[in-house]
Amino acid sequence: MPFIATTILANFTVPERITVDPKSILLLLPLVAAIAVVYKATKIPTIKPAHFLKESAILFGSIVIFMAVTALVLCVFAWIVTE
Q1: Where are the domains of the chain?
Q2: How many CB atoms lie within 10 A of CB 35?
């Protein structure tokens, strides 16, 4: 088996360590994009490229904004409780 294929397969044997650093937060964005595209693909009756991309981008943005607001509220709540 070629070295590259072995390396790729070896990466799947160890779970991804998710911490609270910028890299882990950036891993959230492709997941949110995939969720937005799949959700809109199942909900839009006829898929027209421009309309589909616009709707997916709006859903992507709303999910990211909602998660940022939720994180901010939780941080403020934790700060109030611990002070």
Answers
A1: 19-82
A2: 14
The burial class, CB within 10 Å (0-12 / 13-18 / 19+), for 36 is buried
Cβ 59 vs Cβ 43: under 8 Å: no
Q: What is the pLDDT of residues 5-50, one digit of tens each?
A: 888 888 788 777 777 777 777 888 999 999 999 999 999 888 898 9
Of 63, 54, 55, 58, the closest CA to residue 29 belongs to 63
Q: What is the pTM of this model?
A: 0.71
Say how far apart CA 59 and CA 74 lie, in whole Å: 22
